[in-house]
Amino acid sequence: MHIYSFEKLETWQKARMFRKDIYHLTRKFPKEEIFGLTSQLKRSASSIGDCLAEGSARVTPKDKAHFITIAYSSAIETINHIIGAYDLDYISEEEYVAYRLKLDELTNKLNALRKSILKN
């Protein structure tokens, strides 16, 4: 089986684990949120890794960096959804802080990856 370049990226691996964490977290959200916040949170969290994968197939560094920027934007959207989940008491303060820290790490890695690609 072929391993694609995006699968080797630490940033993508962290995004993959983060998506898994979000899917587990949203299982406890109210059922009436399944098409609301639950869906939005899952989609924005998934988009981080999706954009990294899609961008890895682009040819120019500028195109690759563009998709990393979109991944970063998805991470910021995810922060907003985490804030919403906390405000609505769907997650505890402890969970809120833990997920914010994970997203801080992920956004820092995305920024570093984008800068690295644009240097080439």
From TrEMBL:
Gene3D superfamilies: 23S rRNA-intervening sequence (1.20.1440.60). GO terms for cellular component: ribosome. The keyword Ribosomal protein applies. Keywords: Ribonucleoprotein, Ribosomal protein. Transmembrane segments: none annotated. The keyword Lipoprotein does not apply. PANTHER family: FOUR HELIX BUNDLE PROTEIN. This is 30S ribosomal protein S23.
